[in-house]
Amino acid sequence: MSELAWSIVGWTGTVIFLASFLAKDRALLHALGLVGCVVKLGYTYHLQAWPLVVNWILLIFIEAYQWYRYRRDHANPSLEEFLKCQM
After folding, report:
1. Rounded CA gap, 71 and 13, in Å?
2. Using CA atoms, how far apart are residues 59 and 30, in angstroms rounded to an integer?
3. Closest C-alpha among 50, 31, 33, 38 to residue 10
4. What's the pTM value of the predicted model, to 2 decimals?
5. Secondary structure of the chain: what % helix, strand, coil (to 5)?
């Protein structure tokens, strides 16, 4: 790929990652954050910026765990939580 294409990949990852902070739903926040991290990981791997590669790998695990935990805890809401949402 050309350097322009890699630059577009890098900026796309940045936009996705930053857009995740605007999400009102926590599951969407972590899903977008995870996608943004994976894209940025690919970009920094291409640049061979190894400290940043390690950083993005750690962030991928953090985002994946937070997304999993949120989905696990909200997969079967209690009756009280269900009634709160209905009001």
Report:
1. 23
2. 11
3. 38
4. 0.79
5. 85, 0, 15
How far, in Å, CA of 64 to CA of 47, rounded? 24
- The predicted-structure confidence for 33-85, as pLDDT tens digits, reads as follows 999 999 999 999 999 999 999 999 999 999 999 999 988 888 765 656 656 66
Residue 18: both structure tokens together: 């930053």
- Tokens 């985002």 -> residue: 63
Q: What is the DSSP string of 20-61?
A: HTT-SSHHHHHHHHHHHHHHHHHHHHHHT-HHHHHHHHHHHH
Phi/psi region, residue 48 (left: phi>0; alpha: psi -120 to 50; beta: rest), is left
